[in-house]
Each structure stands twice: as C-alpha cells, then as structure tokens.
Amino acid sequence: MIKSYLRHRMADKEINDIKKLMNISGVSRNSINKLYRGAELETLRMDTLIKLCQALDCDLSDLIEYANDPK
Fold it and tell me: By three-state DSSP, how is residue 69 classified?
C-alpha cells in the first residue's frame, strides 16, 4: 500500500491549488490528482515523482510512503 503526503507538502509550501503546482512542476493535472486523492498511486511514473519532489523541494520519502499490506 502506498500513502501520499502531497497535501502536506503543498500546505508546507503554501500551494493552495493543483493548477499552481502544475505550473511550478510541469506535471499533468491527472498525475497530481492521483497523488492528491491517493488513488491509483501504483501507476505513477518515477519521473513524475521526481519532478514533484524538485518543485516542492522535498525527498521522495516526504511525498510517498510504502507500507506492507498485511493481507
């Protein structure tokens, strides 16, 4: 299971909407929405995550976290 902390990073940087993050990062609305909503995170590309980390000045571990699903 992958958890997203995009909302937290956006709040830290005082980025109030997805459109502003799109302009800063160059990442598509669809990809940002996935992270923002925590849906279909397994389909995100690594280069997308790297762009967001650069735009938000954070590490990958600040943006997402993998937790083993105890199924």
Answer: coil
Residue 60 covered by a domain: yes
Residue 71 inside a domain? The answer is no
Q: What is the pLDDT of residues 6-24, one digit of tens each?
A: 999 999 999 999 999 999 9
**41 vs 14, 38, CA distance in Å?**
23, 6
Whether 42 is covered by a domain: the verdict is yes
Contacts for 18 with CB less than 8 Å, ≥ 6 apart: 29, 32, 33, 36
Question: What mean pLDDT, rounded, does the chain reach?
Answer: 94
Structure tokens at 70: 């105890």
CATH number of the CATH domain containing 23: 1.10.260.40
3 state SS of 59: coil
